[in-house]
């Protein structure tokens, strides 16, 4: 660091100090995340909720279709069995949709790019 760097205003000096101490963290510390921006976060979460509602309706339809197929192949079934089948199919599809949706939300808003990947640099020897 040069002596002239200490004449910088507070935030600029702080980011320069962070960059000098840990060059790999300077970008992650100074750039705003996608969800830190209020309007971007509102849009991302609204899209996520819309996708989840669509997946809930789709998984309910698939669950009812599976129960209908079982009813058609096996004959009349107890209502508890039908309810558990629909609920099990719905819950399985919703869990997969929730986890995949959160993964895409994290990737689409830039959170994945801000994570410090020590494994690549220390273990694999990769440089970004």
Question: What this model shows, in words?
Answer:
This protein has 128 residues and is mainly α. The protein folds into 2 domains: 1-30, no CATH class; 35-124, no CATH class. The chain has 6 helices and no strands. The protein has helices spanning 10-21, 26-30, 38-74, 79-108, 111-114, 118-124. Helix 3 (38-74) runs antiparallel to helix 4 (79-108). The longest helix has 37 residues, at 38-74.
List the helices and strands and how they pair.
Blueprint: H1 10-21, H2 26-30, H3 38-74, H4 79-108, H5 111-114, H6 118-124
Write down the oligomeric state. single chain
Number of strands: 0
Give helix and strand order, one letter per element, not per position. HHHHHH
- Average pLDDT, rounded to a whole number, is 76
- Which structural class fits the helix and strand makeup? mainly alpha
Q: Provide a count of the helices.
A: 6
Strand content: under 5%
Radius of gyration: 25 Å
The largest pleated sheet is described as:
none
Terminal-residue CA separation? 23 Å
| Anisotropy-based shape | elongated
- Taking pLDDT < 50 over at least 5 consecutive residues as the criterion, the unreliable ranges are 16-29
Helix content: over 70%
Overall structural domain count? 2
